[in-house]
Amino acid sequence: FFFPNRNAFKHELTLLEKVRHPNVVQFVGAVTQNMPMMIVSEYHPKGDLRSYLQKKGRLSPSKALRFALDIARGMNYLHECKPDPIIHCDLKPKNILLDSGGQLKVAGFGVIRLSKISPDKAKLAQGGGNIDPSNIYVAPEIYRGEIFDRSVDAYSFGLILYEMIEGALLSQPKPPEETLRMLCIDGQRPPFKSKSKSYPPDVKELIEECWDPEPVVRPTFSEVVVRLDKIVSNCSKQGWWKDTFKLPWK
User: What's phi and psi for 97, nearest 5 deg?
Assistant: First the structure.
């Protein structure tokens, strides 16, 4: 990561130094004496989830759930950080890396500049907070410039999980600006196209709660982890996707 701004650099460095979790990208070191300043994180030659989905398309339900658990566990760790939760604000497939063992790691947190209102409430800092205008996974509250909380990450997670089990968010590609208007202003959501027996109905229910326009409806990531674990356990007991589950995924 390159940081032309010294304050943004220090902010990211402070976050990364204290973060230690198998589903969060590992801090390795930093270049502080020369410009541009750089933060060095662990290298993952398999790339990011965006590239993986572009190559593979819709994932098998078992792999989608395994990946979803990886993301949810990493995000739950960030949200439970003390003294204040780390709100990602930019959770998207490009910010989720795949390691050599096939495990996902959340990256890119701390880059968005926030103006904290309380430990769990924030707005984008003056200047737009460096949100990528092409990021179609951003929550409606952020898009509209409103006060938000950690539930914005659950919204993004819902879209990512949908994409893993259903394929592309849109059947016909549209400009990011148009897609964001559909999702954040018009309140439209992608349709579920796969046959209902392709994955448990609990998965669809979880996605719909995560991307609900009302932040209070969205589950916390601690709840998401519990629900995904339960879905996987039930599928294993009922013989869904035989020989595809390897438990536990801890």
Answer: -100, 150
